[in-house]
Design brief:
208 residues; single chain; two-stranded antiparallel sheet
Length: 208
């Protein structure tokens, strides 16, 4: 292939790949460093961690699937609304799911407001409005969070309802550790050296 043709074709392929990569990186951008950036980082870390250590404890694959499901919906809706940076919307989605799963927790916002956890996403949206930011991003995060919460927690418990969001098995194979059977005894040749079974230890300690 001639040099110019090769260079131009390669540049086209790399540029297209970079555009595809932006489908992921748009969830990682929170604007320039400043108050809004650090505010989002605090809420992202706090509520992502509480979800992972709370209702998703031991269910890493389900947590990853929620990320994929939410990211897909946000990207789809964002195309129609011309929204290109969705990091804040993703944070609001996490906050919304956590708040609906912890409805009785009392919250305090900067010592000014006291409210129940389900109102937290709406308080954050109002705070964004006070800062002069568009609330479209917050509404998108709330909408996607509500869709996930309804399909995962509400609809399966309704009469005639069923679980629609099923985590793919390959995600469970990658992220979830198989549970060990406490009654399983490996064959002698499969046991680690110098680690006999409890029964063998007892026989050694109490010979007949």
């Amino acid at each position: 292939m001639p040099a110019v043709t090769r260079a131009y074709t390669t540049a086209c392929v790399l540029t297209t790949a970079a555009v595809i990569w932006r489908l992921i990186t748009n969830f990682l951008f929170f604007g320039p460093l400043g108050f809004s950036f650090f505010f989002n980082m605090i809420f992202l870390y706090r509520y992502c961690r509480m979800l992972e250590e709370g209702s998703f404890r031991g269910r890493t694959a389900d947590f990853v699937f929620m990320f994929l499901f939410g990211g897909f919906l946000m990207t789809l809706f964002g195309l129609f609304a011309s929204l290109f940076f969705l990091g804040q919307a993703f944070t609001i989605m996490l906050v919304y799911v956590w708040s609906r799963r912890n409805p009785y927790i009392r919250m305090n916002f900067f010592g000014l407001l006291n409210f129940q956890a389900p109102f937290l996403p709406w308080v954050l949206m109002g705070f964004s409005l006070l800062l002069g930011n568009s609330i479209i991003i917050d509404l998108l995060g709330i909408a996607v969070g509500h869709i996930y919460y309804f399909l995962e927690d509400v609809f399966p418990n309704q009469p005639g309802g069923k679980k629609l969001l099923l985590t793919p098995s390959f995600l469970k194979m990658v992220f979830d550790t198989p549970e060990e059977d406490p009654n399983y005894n490996p064959l002698p040749e499969d046991r680690p050296e110098n680690q006999p079974r409890d029964q063998d230890r007892n026989q050694q300690q109490h010979p007949q």
